[in-house]
Amino acid sequence: MINSLRGMNDILSDDEYARYTYFIKTATDIASKYGFHFIETPILEETALFKRSVGESSDIVGKEMYQFRDKGENDVCMRPEGTAGVVRAFIQKKLDKAGGVHRYFYHGPMFRYERPQKGRLRQFHQFGVESFGIASVYEDATMIMMVSDILKALGIGYRLQLNSLGDQNCMPTYRDNLVKFIESCEDEICEDCRRRKDTNPIRVLDCKNAHCQSLYANAPKLINNLCSPCNDDFTTLKKILDDNDIAYEIDTHLVRGLDYYSKTAFEFVSDNIGSQSAIAGGGRYDRLVEFLDGRPTPAVGFAMGIERLMELIVMPENSREGYYMGAMDEEAVALIVSLTHKKRATDRVTIDYKAKNLKNHLKAADKVNAQFCCVIGTNELENGTIWVKDLQNRSEEIIDIETF
Ligand SMILES: [Zn+2]
Ligand SMILES: [Zn+2]
Fold this sequence. Notes:
The protein is about 35% helix and about 20% strand. By secondary structure, the protein is α+β, with helices and mostly antiparallel strands. The chain is elongated.
């Protein structure tokens, strides 16, 4: 017997399928209401794309990529995240040169060769949104509102953590000050942090080591050293969130390791799934388009891991939908096939081609979660009628086939 690969799951059971499709429908409906359009990019891309966007020093690129040479000797990689491909497509279509505003949402599988553990898959699914062409902090606030709307619609509670990463104007000075601070306690920090000090000093702030964290409580905070445009934006962002009743906490240790991230960074966390608590993350990445050889274009986005959210979704109680069609007599099967075809123009219809007794049809209709169980037996066939039971309201009636 051949099994699926480690860390790669089927979405197969009734419950998983219902949760997955309910998530996609809810998230895409909301993104469409916000004026975003669907984009689908390939799963395979040139490895260089992720090396330049996600960064060679990151764990994702350093350790976790599904990277190989294809039959044409191209160095390719299965996408570990969604933003790089969307930015590549944006530049390839010359939309950076066209200017204007471009807003996209995507969803699909991502691949990371991680050690399989609870809540971590090697093939997992993300839903994400990217907005190009708007430098205004109002767009950052809109992103946060969209995540909040999606989580609320799914019945998922959250805490929102917020930080500002500054920009090219204020970040470099801060970084120098931070390096000085790290040097002052270099003997006490962990191995990883000592390495980060030289490669990526900002990343020491989200070190998972408790002793490091106790030391960094005294580190200078970028949020207190923002230049005035960055500070104004952050103040505006907080005010919009206040005005719209979206609660947040400032987390000065919420950082990103890459230079193209700037200003707003946010993370939505859940307290209901243990230590793997981030359920959505995003922020502004004004320099990524430029990093990938495009014309400088302000951009902001977010991504959410669908598998983690699936276990938290509160499914609506009334989920019966559509029709179930069955025949009690072999002679009626052709008729229910025709009626099913007609009904499918507007409704979801499940059909059983085998003649069965009523009890078995009712059971089968219940199993597929149909709202109406419709059955034709000998009597109905003679009278040109169909027997219909509403499984939601437990009522039944006999309807003329002409008006069904
Ligand atoms: Zn550390
Ligand atoms: Zn600044």
